[in-house]
Amino acid sequence: MNKRLIFVALVTGFSGMIIQLLLLRELLVVFHGNDLAIGIILANWLAIEAFGAFFIGKKIEHTSKKIGLFIFLSILFVFLASLALFLAYIVRDLTGVLPGMGVGVFSIFYSSFLVLFLPSLLHGALFVFTCKLWAEFANQSPEQDAKKGAASIGRAYVWETIGHIVGAAVFTLLLIPFFHSFTIVFGIGVLTLIVTMVLTTFQSRSVQRKTLAVLTTVLVAFVYLLASEGDQWLHYQAIAQQWPDKEVLHHQHSPYGNVVVITRAGEYTFLADGIPVFTTPTPDLVRVEEFVHFPMLAHPRPEKVAILSGGAGGVINEILKHPSIERVDYTEINPLLIDLAQKFPTPLTKAELADPRVSTLHVDGRRFLELTPNQYDLIFVGVSNPENLQVNRLFTAEFALLAKKRLQEDGILVISLPGSLTYLSHELRNLNGVVINTLTSVFPYLHIIPGYHNIFLASMNKEVTKINTVLLYERLVERQLDLRLITRPYLEVRLDPHRLEWFLEAMKGATGEINHDFRPKGFFYSLAYWNAMFSPYLRNFFVWLEDLRLSFFAIIIAMSTAILLILWWRGTRLHRFSIPYSIATTGFAGMVFDLLLIFAFQVLFGFVFHWIGFLLAAFMGGVGVGGLVMTVLLPHIKDDRGLFIKIEVAVIFFAVLLPLLILAVAPYLGNPVVFILAQLLFLLLAFVAGALIGLKFPLANKIHLSHSPNLSRTAGLMYSTDLLGGWFGGIIAAVVLLPVLGLVGTSLVVVMIKASSLIMLIISHRYKAPDIGFYLS
């Protein structure tokens, strides 16, 4: 039975990880690629799994038909995963959010909760069922033997974790590049049903025949859907619902994200993770001409230009109008975007991309600046809002220093941000203020052209930032530029000194913060601005977050620890609750470690969507190895609580070490060897973080089973407290810690929370109670 249960546990973990990553990908399209939505999505998955593990999983104690119920839940999981995928496509309609509108933090929370609820609920229950089946059919009596019961939970945990690892790797390398989402989810359904059939061999002949008949019917239905291209039909129906009133020409996931091409009235719009990148053949004329020609005319003779993203569909075309241009280096990290621009060409994109002066490079823009030996007259940042961590990397002080090294003496760094000619809200003022502070911390000269898109020209040369109507118009005439928008009267209006005076006056009271890679205040203020527009009821919350400091968390954690000690001190409460409390804080730490690594990877490398499966696989691999090692060691451990405390100290040490290692490697990424080794370091750190979490889980179950011999209840309790801690960590880290406190501050919060549980453990270990009974009903 053990071998067959191994396959069942493997496939449970394998299918769960693939469905989780698949829904994560689809929801990120809905949420415009917001990196920190990853934390909210993963947190919701964990919370719902915890609910399923504890409240559904524990019901297994009261049923005699455990295998039949497990098979039924497996079939239901397959169907509900397909339903959840369809819901991910149409969740905007269900929640009343129109395509193209932003999604606030609360909308991200409840939308993802709605999509994930049913499959996550069942997946959590299936874990507890697997633990019980493992113990029962291995002829163990966990209710009478804590070590054997803990070993059963540990083995199920390890094999399910191995399934997670394989699922993450297969999803990243084999599924996403070649198959669309409904094909993947139907394929997972077929695999789950086939493996579930092995459990029928432990039913009576009559029951087995009935169960096999049901499984075969469902299996044939899924195979028929795949063979008759039903998956393709559902795919197109879902896309049509996701993009109403638009013709979707192409929809594809790549390792770097989702790309969609839609057309309407002869216009092609190319979107990456739901965000419009460019429109052709008629671009946004006002933005493109202003963004390109104001800085190009400010430079006396632009010859070499770099464009970091967003160049196709108008920007390159306008740059090439200047006769002195010799070279344009255009970077776009996702090669699929350029491939599709060539697949659906217009005269504009054909001319841009085919021009011999233009080099299109499939590389992260920041990485390109680190490696290129070229010096440029102008560097254009083609994205206009640090709305996610990948884009924020192009608005930080560290990026400005890098750009400064790649500019000629009279070179100009060009950045744009949302603006207004009538009123600057608190959020818009801070968003512009943090970027102004960042640029002026590196460049001595900055000229601002206010408008509905504020344009910033930063330089080491004072002369190129001293622009006026006369100078720019003279150069426009001299270069014989044929422009549709920019004329002398237009320049007089846009460069009116009174506009700049009004803007500077309106900016009074803006933040004094500087945007850094590992303290992404630009991203935070963009998040606040976004939520003020689309979730205004959260505005006061974000205003409160602006002044949040590490000391606030220190006070809250210290007070909470003191209150819990007072509440649990009497009798045996402290001894009983210290282990679940430690597991909850470990779940919190594990999720935060995971998000910290994802966050830091995105900041340093810019392509975390390509690696998120590997990072999760490495983390889960560590969990599996840690769980396996501890499961093997359980029979030989004499001082359970003493070892548990030592592992708790190791988690705290790791929380201190993690940011130090990341900060130590960051300055050396320009070296190609270090660049590769640093990515492997992230996998190692993810593995170690997971191993520390995995070591604690079987040991915690053993300690708890020694006083509460109900295996299913113990497995459900520990699994659910672990996941609930992870849920809390995901929400807090995604919304508060990472954008406000950054890398180091977030790690220190983990240190303080784990110190709280360490204090509980030490006190409870020193003052042991003689009689402990912890029974949850």
Summarize the entry for a quick read.
The chain is α/β, with parallel strands linked by helices and 777 residues long.
In terms of DSSP E residues, the strand content is 5-15%
Mean of residue pLDDT? 87
Oligomer: single chain
Rg, rounded, reads: 28 Å
Classification by helices and strands: alpha/beta
Strand order of the largest sheet: 7-6-5-8-9-11-10
How many β strands by DSSP? 11
The total of helices stands at 27
Overall 3D shape: globular
Q: Please give the largest β-sheet.
A: 7 strands, mixed
Give the uncertain stretches in residue-range form: 140-144, 769-777
What's the end-to-end separation, in Å? 31 Å
Helix content: 55-70%
Please write out the topology:
Layout: H1 2-30, H2 37-56, H3 66-95, H4 105-137, H5 146-175, H6 181-196, H7 205-227, H8 230-242, E1 247-254, E2 257-264, E3 267-272, E4 275-280, H9 285-298, E5 304-308, H10 315-320, E6 327-331, H11 335-343, H12 347-354, E7 358-361, H13 365-371, E8 376-381, H14 389-392, H15 397-405, E9 407-418, H16 426-440, E10 445-449, E11 453-459, H17 469-478, H18 488-494, H19 497-506, H20 521-534, H21 539-546, H22 550-568, H23 573-605, H24 608-633, H25 640-665, H26 672-705, H27 711-766
Parallel strand pairs: 5-6, 5-8, 6-7, 8-9
Antiparallel strand pairs: 1-2, 2-3, 3-4, 9-11, 10-11
